[in-house]
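Narrative of activities, Objective 1.

The group set out to show that a structural description can be obtained from nothing but a protein's sequence at a throughput compatible with the screening campaign. Below is one input-output pair from the validation batch, recorded exactly as produced.
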Amino acid sequence: MPEISYVGSELEVFAHANNWKRYVRSQIEPYLTGAVLEVGAGIGSNTLSYIAGSHNRWLCLEPDSQLAACIKSNPALTACQVMVGTVADLPAEERFDAILYMDVLEHIADDAVELRRSAAHLKPGGHLIVVAPAHQWLFTPFDRAIGHYRRYNAAMLRRTGPPGMHLERLRYLDTAGVCASLGNRLLLSSASPTVRQIQTWDRFFVPVSRILDPLLGYKAGKSIVAVWRMPDGG
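Output recorded for this entry:
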């Protein structure tokens, strides 16, 4: 495959969002079992938050060789396998119980083709999990700077899902964070959040969202989670 270099600069900044990572983990952990493929694993900061589950194999797939090298050199991630490439580079016989796109799908131009390609690598009964930024009206210079093609709403993700798979979960997260994102869009127009901004959001907004989101039926938020299940017949 040709060498790919990631254009984003946010990975190390968002590594400080520990409350957020725990919150997302609580939403997707039941699906992270058996053999897990993490697409676009970056530097492995999300991997660190999710690998304590009941999986027996975790493959980090990352197209940027320098980012993949960060995962390989992290002593806390030695149990993970690392492959440089994309889903298109996976051997045809590779099958997984769960495939995770954590803030990755929005970076891919043809997202529907990508998910169909991933679905071909799911075992019967396996899950395809997508966590992505929500609402195009929240699109900021920061989104553009790190290579986002879009933000999603529920209808968009429904349409993007692979044919033949059952949409098992679709919900918004981080109601309080909408205020922070909207403020950035209207007032700051920042192309890159600072560590301090991320820590403020993570410390004050995320705990409030964990209370508000279920009260509002997960109908609002600046992020969206979708989980599809492959039929048991494959």
